[in-house]
Amino acid sequence: FPLQAPASWQGGQVGMDLPAEVLLTVMLLGDSGVGKTCFLLQFKDGAFLSGTFIATVGIDFRVALPALTGAVSQQIWDTERFRSVTHAYYRDAQALLLLYDITSKMSFDNIRAWLTEIHEYAQKDVVIMLLGNKADVSSERAVRTEDGASLAREYGVPFMETSAKTGMNVELAFLAIAKELKQRAAQPLDEPRFQIHDYIESQKKKSSCCAFS
Ligand SMILES: Nc1nc2c(ncn2[C@@H]2O[C@H](COP(=O)(O)OP(=O)(O)OP(=O)(O)O)[C@@H](O)[C@H]2O)c(=O)[nH]1
């Protein structure tokens, strides 16, 4: 199966002449049904072009418009079913969005297993963000916000609740990792770093919105 996207897709070149300075690979992880596909689709409406479904491995490939992230383009991998195959992809990912469903305790309980797997297969400095999705369905909530936050603290990763339905915090998740990775690429390690936690905390209440068709 193809490990690399066709060259013509890379660097945000899909019908665009904007320069792509950095190519980021982001993977969405989490149990089946937590909303990974919807999460991507929600963001795609604002920023992404559809890529091609790589049928052989079931991985959905999308390329971002560089305009959104300031000439940072992203490859987004959405994968759930093909665990053994996707181990190979962990190595290439600079960022992982790890989703659970706030209405599913099991999807939350499985986050530890996902994190174990990530630590085994992903790059040591991968940016991980924990996302409690489906925050719009508070009537069926099975996981408290504090429990999400506390698990995230335990693993030292940023956390927020999102809704792929309303769009709440979806764009922020991508923007935060894009900013973090861009800063890392641009700055020597001993200079003050972009604080992804602070950025999310300052931004996350602001973004909620949108229609879901
Ligand atoms: N209310 C609500 N429903 C959502 C949200 N995100 C996804 N859903 C619904 O949850 C179901 C599963 O969403 P998917 O995006 O297919 O989940 P997935 O993680 O890609 O699932 P797999 O492809 O099986 O791994 C669908 O019925 C979605 O409409 C959300 O934020 N809020």
From TrEMBL:
UniProt enzyme class: hydrolase
Superkingdom of origin organism: Eukaryota
GO biological process per UniProt: protein transport
Keywords: GTP-binding, Hydrolase, Lipoprotein, Magnesium, Metal-binding, Nucleotide-binding, Prenylation, Protein transport, Transport
Any one GO molecular function term: G protein activity
Catalytic activity: GTP + H2O = GDP + phosphate + H(+)
EC number: 3.6.5.2
Pfam families assigned to the protein according to its UniProt record, in alphabetical order: Ras (PF00071)
NCBIfam families xrefs: small_GTP (TIGR00231)
Sequence similarity: Belongs to the small GTPase superfamily. Rab family.
Protein name: small monomeric GTPase
Organism of this sequence: Cyanoderma ruficeps
